[in-house]
Structures are given as structure tokens and as C-alpha cells.
Design a protein that fits this description.
Helix 5 packs across helix 6. It is elongated, with a radius of gyration of 38 Å. It is mainly alpha-helical and 260 residues long. It has a two-stranded antiparallel sheet with strand order 1-2. Strand 1 and strand 2 form a beta hairpin. Among the domains are: 50 residues, no CATH class; 64 residues. It has seven helices and two strands; from the N terminus they run αββαααααα.
């Protein structure tokens, strides 16, 4: 096992904005007018990503800069996710290596060699010390181990496709149940994407996710309506003339004198 661990790519520096040049600094033609240095439209199209230009992703690892293609970057990202899964096991091997004052690679080699020696010794004992027979049986047993390892790797490589197929079959069966409860949902494409995401991520049925989705939307609508009603009550409206006011005789007498 290689002890070298892929480090995350360093963040790339953002391209600095082009400085605004003054008219005096721009190239000029014979008339003294600034020459047009803007690239033509067809030149810009020639360098657009995806238009015959390979997409590369610069990364830096072990103090070295590399440019990866999009496919290489995707493969390394998948390996990084796999490393996260194997990290606890690697920590145990590191613990054993430190306890035995070995490097991780040396510890792994020692474990493999010890397993092989143990296998050979057990076969030799069963053969009554017949080394020629023990070696043949040992090689045959090692071939079985290699075959089991190859099968395990093959199954591991097929796992994503199997998971995808299993998920598709599961959602198809659950959609039949959902359609029975909600006939208006006649096709799978009518199921809101948040419902599908909730069913997959939380491991619940489509029907359960659909009910939760409807309940959440109903709560949002109710809260919005309540907020609108509260705002309507709080806003000052036109008041009827004299409503809620107490007549003041002095003011009334003064107003009466003004209009006479």
C-alpha cells in the first residue's frame, strides 16, 4: 500500500483584472488615434472552452504543478472519496507500524509475509514435512487467494452500477404505490425533484417523502398568509371623519367663528 496520500489541490489564484490603460499608453496609428486592440469576435470564439480546446485543471501536489484533464480530475476525485472511506483502516495500520517501528509500507509487507509463512507452515505440517508436496499445495492455495481477490475487485467495480440499478427499481416500485394514493401524479416526471432527493437521501418511500413535501408547502403557505394578514392589520388605514374623537367645545366655537 502506498503511503503517499493525495493532498487536495491548492486553490488557484484568481486572474487579476486587466488594468485600465490611459489613452497615452495605448498604441496609436499615424493619425494619433488609439488603435483598436480588442480581439475580433472570431478570435474569441476560437479559445472558448469546449470548442476544440481541451479542458485542463491545474493542481499542485508535492510542490509540483500539474495540469489534469477533466477525466483525470474526475478519477482522482473518486479516489479521494474512496480514501476517506479507507482512512480509519489506514490509521490502524499506521498504529501498528509505529508500534513496530516500521513504515506503513514495511508494516504491510511484514503482514503479507507473515500470512504467507503461516500458510506454508500449516500446509507443511499437514504434509508430514514433505516440502515438495507442501510447495505445490501452497502455490495452489495462493492461486485461490489471488482469484478471490480478483473477484472482489471486480465486484467492487460493478457496485456503483448495481446500486444505480437497485435504486431505479426501488423508485419504480414506490412510484406505483405513490400513484395509487395520488392518482393526479400520473407520470414519474410529475414527482417534484425535492421529493425524489428526500426519498433517496433519507431512505424513505416516495409516498412518505411526497406527504412531507406537501405538509412543508402547506406550512409555508399558512405562515405566509398569517404574515400577510398581520401586516394588513398593522398598516394604518383611512379613518372615518370624527371616528374615535371627542368633541372639544372651545375648538368648535373657534372654528364656527372663522366660518361666519
Amino acid at each position: 500500500m502506498d503511503e503517499t496520500i493525495m493532498q487536495p489541490a491548492e486553490a488557484l489564484p484568481e486572474a487579476e483584472p486587466a488594468s485600465t490603460a490611459t489613452a497615452a499608453a495605448e498604441p496609436t496609428d499615424e493619425t494619433g488615434e488609439a488603435a483598436d486592440t480588442t480581439p475580433a469576435a472570431d478570435t474569441e470564439q476560437d479559445v472558448q472552452p469546449g470548442d476544440g480546446q481541451p479542458i485542463v485543471i491545474p493542481v499542485r501536489y508535492n510542490h509540483e504543478s500539474r495540469e489534469l484533464t477533466l477525466e483525470e480530475a474526475q478519477a482522482l476525485a473518486q479516489k479521494g472519496l474512496k480514501f476517506d472511506e479507507l482512512s480509519p483502516t489506514l490509521d490502524k495500520i499506521r498504529y501498528l507500524a509505529a508500534a513496530n517501528q516500521k513504515s506503513v509500507q514495511e508494516m504491510v509487507d511484514a503482514l503479507v509475509d507473515g500470512q504467507d509463512k503461516q500458510l506454508y507452515q500449516s500446509i507443511l505440517e499437514e504434509c508430514g514435512g514433505n516440502e515438495a508436496l507442501a510447495k505445490r499445495l501452497y502455490e495452489a492455495e495462493k492461486d485461490k487467494w489471488s482469484a478471490r481477490y480478483a473477484n472482489a475487485r471486480e465486484e467492487e467495480s460493478k457496485a456503483p452500477e448495481k446500486d444505480k440499478a437497485g435504486l431505479t427499481e426501488r423508485l419504480a416500485n414506490e412510484f406505483v404505490e405513490l400513484k395509487a394514493e395520488f392518482p393526479d401524479v400520473a407520470e414519474f416526471k410529475q414527482v417534484p425533484q425535492p421529493v425524489v432527493d428526500m426519498a433517496v437521501n433519507k431512505g424513505i418511500s416516495l409516498t412518505d417523502a411526497y406527504l412531507r413535501y406537501q405538509h412543508a408547502n402547506a406550512r409555508k403557505a399558512s405562515a405566509a398568509k398569517a404574515a400577510q394578514e398581520a401586516a394588513s392589520k398593522a398598516s394604518p388605514g383611512p379613518q372615518a371623519a370624527g371616528s374615535g374623537e371627542t368633541a372639544n367645545p372651545t375648538i368648535e366655537a373657534m372654528m364656527a367663528g372663522v366660518w361666519k
